[in-house]
Write a structure and sequence with these properties.
The chain has helices spanning about 60-75, 85-90, 100-115, 120-125, 145-155, 170-180, 200-205, 225-230, 245-255, 270-280, 295-305, 355-360, and strands at about 5-20, 25-40, 45-50, 130, 135, 160-165, 185-190, 215, 235-240, 260, 285-290, 330, 340, 350, 360-365. By secondary structure, it is of the alpha/beta class. α1 packs across α3 (about 100-115). It is globular, with a radius of gyration of 20 Å. The structure holds 2-succinylbenzoate (OSB) and magnesium ion. Magnesium ion (MG) binds next to loops.
Length: about 375
């Protein structure tokens, strides 16, 4: 493969309803999509999961555009690439900026899958023909509103409910949910809202049989998480702290995490995601695929990755209708009975609706 043309587009999509985490509220989603064309005319698509503001990590849509334009695209254009695993090697001189790297790597994986006549899932080594999914539910104005939402998602069939928590929206919330829904699989995600001194509060969550608590402590920490895990029974799952296979290895060796949330963008692409998956599988650490309010392109990549065998727990890749009135892919991603069917077509397995993409595009640039 040789990439002869790359186009970056900035899209703006309105969320159906605001989504609130411990670090802020999203009302709309600005993101980049990247279209890569190789010299034989094949087209691959990638999505940057960076947000408009550096809330979740330090990357933003603008830093991603800058990194792509000034460093990453020049390392790729017109270079012979035999396998997408080579992309992360080409990017090695560039530190971090994982979401920017992943944007282009994803598009190259898509092209590679098409070139070799297989679905992206098969190209990655995935075997499942359907994947189990859960849903992430933001912080609400009242517990009553949260209960109504959970009830709706349970009826839609989602396999586990992830509840966003923060100090003051935690123990009572989880107690109420557990009382009303005794058999539902619940977990909590704090997005780094607590400190080790809050261990007493977090320990109270042990009473509610949560499948895990995600990233309770600082976004760059693996030391205090190891201390916290000794104090609480609920398994800790790291999200923000894990950027690479090396991070995963250290966190597992320290006992900071019993489960890992793999997000393709956060770890710099599908190749690194697969390496973390393989390491965790060999060390009995279950993994699941996180979400970043993706459009259909990012969702398609998540679905493909989740077909790998150690994605044992339901992920956050809910259906297209979770956030969007109309997604940019066809068909849209549909959840039935808690499952998404894995597309069998070559590449990411969904068509891009160019008309919709164009109507949402606020900026675009092509590189040759
Ligand atoms: O529904 C999704 O795509 C996942 C929602 C979610 O939990 C999330 C959304 C934005 C930023 C971080 C996170 C997270 O997993 O921590
Ligand atoms: Mg998280």
């Amino acid at each position: 493969m040789k990439m002869s043309e790359i186009t970056i587009r900035q899209l703006k999509m309105k969320l159906k309803a605001p989504f609130t985490t411990s670090f802020g509220t999203f009302e709309e989603r600005d993101f980049l999509v990247l279209e890569a064309k190789d010299e034989s005319g094949l087209i691959g698509w990638g999505e940057s999961v960076a947000f408009h503001s550096p809330w979740y990590n330090e990357e933003t849509l603008q830093t991603n555009w800058h990194m792509l334009e000034d460093f990453l695209i020049p390392l790729i254009l017109n270079k012979e690439i035999h396998h997408p695993d080579e992309v992360s090697q080409l990017f090695e001189p560039i530190r971090k900026n994982n979401m920017a790297k992943s944007t282009i790597e994803g598009a190259i994986w898509d092209i590679y899958a098409q070139q070799t006549g297989q679905s992206l899932a098969a190209a990655l080594g995935g075997k499942k023909d359907k994947i189990e999914v859960g849903i992430s539910i933001g912080i609400q104005n009242s517990i009553e509103e949260l209960v109504v939402l959970v009830d709706g998602y349970v009826k839609e069939g989602y396999k586990r409910m992830k509840i966003k928590i923060k100090p003051g929206w935690d123990v009572e919330v989880m107690r109420t949910l557990r009382e009303i829904f005794p058999d539902v699989a619940f977990m909590a995600d704090a997005n780094s809202a607590y400190r080790l001194e809050d261990a007493e509060t977090l320990k109270q969550l042990d009473a509610f049989q949560l499948t895990m608590i995600e990233q309770p402590l600082a976004s760059d920490d693996i030391i205090d998480h190891a201390s916290l895990q000794k104090l609480i029974e609920t398994p800790i799952c790291l999200d923000e702290s894990i950027h690479s296979l090396e991070d995963a290895r250290k966190a597992v060796e320290l006992g900071s995490t019993k489960i890992i949330n793999i997000k393709i963008g956060r770890v710099g692409g599908l190749t690194e995601a697969k390496k973390i998956h393989d390491y965790c599988e060999a060390h009995d650490i279950p993994v699941w695929c996180g979400g970043m309010l993706e459009s259909g392109i990012g969702r398609a990549h998540n679905v493909a990755l989740t077909t790998l065998s150690n994605f044992i727990l339901p992920g956050d890749t809910a259906g297209s209708n979770r956030y969007w009135e109309k997604d940019i892919i066809e068909p849209e991603i549909v959840v039935k009975g808690g499952y998404i069917e894995v597309p069998q077509q070559v590449g990411i397995g969904y068509e891009i609706n160019r008309e919709t993409v164009n109507s949402l595009t606020v900026a675009q640039k092509t590189y040759q």
